[in-house]
Specification:
12 strands; 32% helix; alpha/beta; three-stranded antiparallel β-sheet; single chain
Length: 347
């Protein structure tokens, strides 16, 4: 039984409850205060439903396909679909890893559907998508982690809709270079691999992944095919410091990353990692300014930003622009000389 309840607000500069209201609850069984964080007002905006959503939903379901946009209940779904972009999740809905921020179920996936790449290509063509993002769960039980399946999807997209730009958001393939080469040979326009969080938090947030492996993964893409744009992102609000975030920026820059995304971590349900901090939108603006000053080609940084958020904006600016600008200042970045301590897995 609740004995006392106090409500208070803190300023946007204080931690750990940055700019949000909270209840302090004291119970008979637990005399120590229990802090219940409230969702801040900038994260409770209702997103209008686009008229395009129903058409996309019908076609996706008719082709037995899955979009991350729907599975993750993305707040940007209507905005992205109305702009002619969608994110397809291939290779099933069961992940071999158990990251504590992700609501995807864990287990051994079903055998790959060899017809899925064709259906993705035909769906993208029917929807007249301008930009397609292809992602997947981790499939560590597969020798190549699913890299060949990604390559097949890219090939079908090229065949069915040659004017559509293609972005892949892949797992780390356990650091196997040959798997990265398979995807690179299929020539996606953008190769995205998320870093997710700062290195100090990896054991808590991504216990089956390694920070240095992800950074080397991004570097290896550029070493294999320098003409491919690379992209990565992290979630904020898990307890990271500004210094740690900037260090990730430095590691990305040294790995030759071109585009970066930063968004607010939101707990998907009971049993997942708690939100340590709700960052005020001005904090995201500050990170955007820092990243842009460091020279990244594209930076998306706001509470609702996700990996594929407005991916078509980068496509329109850098992939569809064949003028003089792209030939000079907008070329994909090259990696630096420094490599982190953990190399890719031995082949």
């Amino acid at each position: 039984m609740v004995v006392k309840r106090y409500t208070f607000s803190v300023s946007a500069t204080e931690k750990p409850l940055s700019g949000i209201s909270a209840d302090v609850i004291v119970t008979e069984n637990s005399p120590s205060p229990v802090i219940k964080r409230r969702i801040p007002e900038w994260l409770t905006v209702k997103v209008p439903r686009s008229k395009d959503i129903g058409r996309v939903e019908d076609l996706v379901r008719g082709n037995r396909l899955v979009t991350v946009c729907e599975e993750a209940r993305c707040p940007n779904l209507g905005e992205c679909w109305s702009k002619g972009t969608a994110t397809f999740m291939v290779m099933g809905d069961t992940c071999t890893r158990s990251c504590r921020f992700c609501a995807v179920k864990t287990g051994r996936g079903l055998p790959l559907d060899s017809d899925e790449p064709r259906r993705v290509g035909e769906a993208a063509a029917s929807l007249r998508l301008k930009h397609v993002v292809v992602t997947s769960v981790n499939r560590d039980e597969l020798y190549d982690g699913g890299a060949s399946h990604f390559a097949s999807v890219i090939e079908h997209l090229r065949r069915e809709c040659p004017n559509t730009t293609v972005e892949v958001l892949t797992p780390d393939f356990r650091g196997r270079k040959f798997a990265i080469e398979i995807v690179c040979r299929a020539r996606p326009d953008v190769f995205n691999h998320n870093t997710e969080t700062v290195p100090r938090l990896y054991r808590t947030v991504r216990p089956q992944a390694k920070y240095a492996r992800s950074i080397d993964f991004l570097r290896t893409i550029k070493e294999i095919e320098p003409s491919i744009y690379t992209k990565s992102g992290i979630m904020l609000g898990l307890g990271e410091t500004e210094e740690e975030v900037i260090q990730v920026f430095n590691d990305w820059k040294d790995a030759g990353v071109d585009a970066v995304t930063l968004g607010q971590y939101l707990k998907p349900g009971k049993g997942y990692l708690d939100v340590v901090e709700y960052l005020h939108p001005t904090r995201f603006e500050r990170y955007k300014e820092i990243a842009e000053e460091m020279g990244f080609l594209y930076v998306a940084s706001a509470p609702f930003v996700r990996s594929s958020y407005n991916a078509i904006d980068f496509s329109d600016k850098y992939l569809r622009n064949d003028g003089e600008d792209r030939a000079t200042t907008n070329r994909p970045a090259l990696p630096g000389l420094r490599r982190l301590e953990l190399p890719l897995a031995v082949q």
